[in-house]
Amino acid sequence: MASLSIENLTKRFGTSLAVDRLDLSVQEGELVALLGPSGCGKTTTLRMVAGFLPPTSGRVLFDRDDVTNLPAHRRSTGMVFQSYALFPHMTAAQNVGFGLEMRGLGAAERQARVEEALKLVRLAHLAGRFPRELSGGQQQRVALARALVINPKLFLLDEPLSNLDAKLRAEVRIEIRALQQRLGLTTLLVTHDREEALTMADRLVVMEGGRVRQVGSPRELYDEPRDAFVADFVGRCNILSGRRENETEFRTESGLVLPVDTTPNESNNANVFALRPERISVEPGAKGSLHGAVQAVTYLGSQTEYHVCIGKEVFVVIQQTPGANEPLAAVKPQDQVSLRWDCKAPRLVPHTSL
Predict the structure, then answer these.
(1) Cα→Cα distances 263→239, 266, 271, 344, Å
(2) Which long-range contacts (CB under 8 A, 24 or more apart) does 93-99 make?
């Protein structure tokens, strides 16, 4: 495995700037996720690291070796594509061994390494099946084995779970993470799925418009977003624009005063109130200054989601589903409820940190 360094990496397509002076380091054995909406530059970055796209400027280094101008087949990267890109006329074993054959390995060594790779992904018993005879999850594992069998310096994952259903996606991401940690794979993952990024990555890189908005651990980005974009993209969040009245009050643009607990050294341009839905408590009845009508109640199994309108603002609240005999269980749309939260729970951030 190798470490990865991206230095001032830029990519233009004509007059369009896809990636703008990106700097990033990935330590050996670390899994870093590039997270952002479509068109933010994350896949373009991955393809420049893989060698499929030449950068307009900047450098890509594996350990301390500059590989910026090396073709893809000389970079020793293992890549899993969104579409899996399996050869339909080859069996699982043949697909996995294709890269080894292109590298000139003998038949005996190829077979041994293919068998080992298929065992890693628990598909040794399906080595002779063609892709059309495999489920989506099995095809995804074949693609993983094909990337791993070459013993890559860097493991690259481009939206690898997007073609799987929700239940299978949750299962496979745990498997990939366990495999990555067991093998110590230096990994760069591209995804637009925030839950996938939060559960799999050691660090997240949130991108927007070709630029990095914030880098940090999942907990850091969730609890301490730098701006409103990061707060809203890394997990659900109540985002309300306005201004800080003082260290204990924030006034929204509609005039609603919300309790906060800020510090004097917080940025003066913090004009957005950000509060996670699970950090709000809801109680039946109109109590205190923060009460309003329920717009919707959505049962989610172990959790229930409430949409509550207070003045002109709508708050999303997520709480553990109340027991059948608890007063909150009887709450329905149009009922009055009250909201409260720890004053330290909200975060005041600027609209943008760029």
Answers:
(1) 20, 6, 14, 10
(2) 93/118, 93/127, 93/128, 95/131, 95/142, 95/146, 96/142, 96/145, 96/146, 96/149, 97/149, 98/146, 99/146, 99/149, 99/150
Instruction: Name every residue whose Cβ is closer than 8 Å to that of residue 39 and which is 6 or more positions away in sequence.
Output: none
H or E element that contains 107? helix 107-120
φ, ψ of residue 191 to 5 degrees: the values are -155, 155
Nearest alpha carbon to residue 200 among 239, 169, 243:
169
pLDDT tens column, 100-131:
888 888 889 989 999 999 998 889 999 999 99
Encoded tokens for 114: 């293919």
Distance (Å, rounded) from C-alpha 228 to C-alpha 323? 35
Write down the residue that tokens 């990994």 correspond to: 187
Contact (Cβ atoms closer than 8 angstroms) between residue 155 and residue 50? no
Collect all residues with Cβ–Cβ distance below 8 Å to 318 and sequence separation of at least 6.
236, 277, 278, 300, 303, 304, 305, 306
Give the 3-state DSSP-derived string for 240-264, with helices as H, strands as E and coil as C. EEEEECCCCEEEECCCCEEECCCCC
Torsion angle of C-alpha atoms 206, 207, 208, 211, degrees rounded to 10? 130
- Length reported for the chain: 354
CA 344 to CA 181: how far, in whole Å?
Answer: 35
Convert the pLDDT of each residue in 21-46 to its tens digit: 999 999 999 999 999 999 999 999 99
CA distance 260 to 308: 19
Higher per-residue confidence, 137 vs 20:
20
Q: Which residues contact 17 (CB under 8 A, 6 or more apart)?
A: 10, 11, 210
Which of the 8 DSSP states describes residue 279? G
Burial class (CB in 10 A: 0-12, 13-18, 19+), 184: exposed
For the record, the structure tokens of 281 come out as 């408590």
Q: Please, which residues bridge with residue 349 across strands?
A: 272
Q: Rounded to whole angstroms, what are the CA distances from 129 to 51, 125, 326?
A: 31, 9, 54
